[in-house]
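Colleagues,

For the teaching module next term, I've prepared a clean inverse folding example: a structure given as tokens, and then the sequence designed for it. I'd like students to try predicting residues themselves before seeing the answer, so please don't circulate the second half yet.
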């Protein structure tokens, strides 16, 4: 079943009752809105149907009972800062019956195995970037970006030639036809903020799937920043990033010359968990595909498989 993503951008009181999230929206005082919208409203959502919750307002209250229920059901809860950008992520401590066994196999993974897993990850990412170029730049001929396809097939164990970096430099320079001077940067101009927002949602989905597969999101196969609590999530999400990029390409006309994200554009980014993904020759919603990817990674750590199931665009 596809889990729902709930976004809260207005003041609300969120609590728990009989396995349901109770959403109470306070009375609206603005006289310009219809009378129906002025009254306090209450709706409920089954906890078991929720996969991600985004809290994007400082006047939202969550009860401890609700937080406990969300975490027990492996719901990723994303908190946003005063700029209304994702700043924190809550995940459960336990997510799998064989968690300690899987932790052990993950932590004991040899360096050659981790290098081979990173090789697969980078190759899948660059291949999806190549597919994205074909989608985003119909004005170009395939030979103009064939280098990405070539690099995807030339990645060696551990990517010692840094083909990931070379591919990224070419990709971001050429992806947006209407933005020839675009520079990818966390603090850069639009659509950087939109990409950051989408990646934060994607990261939460991957981290949630890792926990559900009994893995530690912190201990990566390549990323190893001592201050990063989600190194493995950052590794595994790499081949999924082009799906966010494609969504941003589609949303560019709506952005126009806007310098900040609107609530409407953010709402469209919440489609990320349900984006169609082809994985293992089957089409799946991205959230389901992420679970398939992390399960296959756990099998690789345990010595039961040799390849990670990554999506193909």
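(Answer key — instructors only)
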């Amino acid at each position: 079943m596809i889990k729902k993503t709930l976004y809260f951008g207005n003041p609300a009181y969120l609590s728990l009752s009989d396995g349901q999230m109770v959403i109470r929206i306070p009375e609206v005082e603005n006289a310009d809105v219809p009378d129906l919208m002025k009254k306090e409203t209450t709706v409920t959502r089954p906890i078991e149907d929720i996969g991600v919750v985004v809290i994007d307002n400082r006047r939202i209250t969550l009860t401890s009972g609700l937080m406990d229920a969300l975490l027990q059901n492996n719901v990723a809860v994303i908190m946003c800062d005063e700029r209304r950008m994702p700043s924190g992520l809550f995940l459960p401590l336990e997510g799998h019956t064989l968690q300690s066994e899987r932790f052990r196999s993950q932590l004991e993974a040899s360096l050659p195995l981790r290098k081979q897993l990173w090789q697969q990850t980078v190759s899948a990412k660059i291949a999806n970037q190549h597919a994205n170029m074909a989608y985003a730049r119909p004005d170009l001929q395939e030979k103009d970006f064939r280098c990405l396809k070539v690099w995807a097939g030339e990645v060696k164990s551990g990517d010692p030639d840094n083909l990931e970096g070379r591919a990224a430099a070419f990709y971001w320079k050429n992806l947006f036809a209407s933005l020839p001077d675009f520079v990818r940067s966390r603090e850069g101009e639009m659509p950087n903020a939109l990409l950051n927002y989408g990646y934060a949602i994607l990261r939460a989905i991957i981290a949630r799937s890792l926990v559900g597969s009994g893995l530690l999101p912190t201990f990566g196969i390549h990323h190893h920043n001592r201050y990063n609590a989600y190194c493995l999530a950052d590794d595994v999400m790499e081949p999924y990033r082009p799906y966010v990029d494609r969504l941003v390409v589609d949303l560019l006309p709506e952005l126009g010359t806007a310098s900040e994200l609107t609530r409407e554009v953010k709402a469209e980014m919440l489609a990320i968990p349900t984006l169609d993904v082809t994985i293992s020759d089957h089409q799946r919603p991205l959230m389901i595909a992420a679970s398939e990817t992390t399960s296959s990674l756990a099998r690789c750590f345990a010595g039961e498989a040799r390849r990670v199931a990554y999506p193909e665009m």
